[in-house]
Amino acid sequence: QRNKCSTGEPRFWEMFAKQSELERDSFLQDVFPSGFLWGTSTGAFNIEGAWAEDGKGESIWDQFGHTGHVYMNQTADVACDSYYKTSFDVYLLRGLHPQMYKFSVSWPRIFPDGTNKTINSKGVDYYSELINRLLDSNIEPMVTLFHWDLPQALQALGGWQNESIIDTFVNYADFCFSTFGDRVKFWVTFHEPWVISYAGYGTGEHPPGITDPGVVAHTILKAHAKVWHVYNDKYRSQQLGKVGLVLNSDWAEPKTPTNPEDVRASERYLQFMLGWFAHPVFVNGDYPDILKSQLPLFTEEEKSWVKGTADFFEFIKYAVSNRLVIRIQHLIFLI
């Protein structure tokens, strides 16, 4: 029980804090395991440019920039111009000698209105060519289905606040599996759903700039699970690929480890960032106990359906995202 908080949940920080320095630093002298893949990654909106060319639809990030919500009115209309530089980009990649390249498909580039009623063949050809060039260069493609750039047409219907988007996302994912899955063996459903939920629908600093993160996260988790089951039931036996999601988190420790209030505050912080999405998928199909009163409920059927819907755990931690946490008057303060 020493590594559990009062609700029975494991304490993230305490499990790692008990590691010896020898255990913690062993990787500095050891070798990476067999099968470890070095790679690099991008997101479609960040690099592709060609925001409205060859039939691409508008995304929420396109509109966000065009309506003056980005610093100095900057846009990604051109960005790195990667849409027109496939061969040059892969040439640059080869110079890095990666074994894997993770990139995202722009949903509105292949489904301009977000649905499969209209499929943009030029967008499909762009990704197909990229995948083929990567494989010809002995670089394993890893494809992210959603890296934040929701089709604006779907946002007009409520975006991730409207549960009908689940089946729309499944149709989009199904198309990608059937079109590219003969060559792609690693899939990511959502890149950093915490950021989507918190920054896009919580604080509003990201598009679409509205609030209601609990509902959004709930919808995203169910969409992820449904896509995983589609791949598992329909494609896995033939394509032999893997499907997961990318989670991000800052790291938090109690400012005073002997202070129970600080310990509980740091645990709350980590459960809010990492446990919000990791707990349903990797533990028991439900949210951490400490968050349940603030979030929608999963049915028992949904819990069994969400649990275990990842073939790998992909985690992002940024270099400066460490926190010392104290608890004062029931609030978390960052020092």
UniProtKB/TrEMBL annotation:
This is Lactase-like protein. It holds the Pfam family Glyco_hydro_1. GO terms for biological process: carbohydrate metabolic process. GO terms for molecular function: hydrolase activity, hydrolyzing O-glycosyl compounds. InterPro entries: GH, GH_1_N_CS, Glyco_hydro_1. Belongs to the glycosyl hydrolase 1 family. Signal peptide: none annotated.
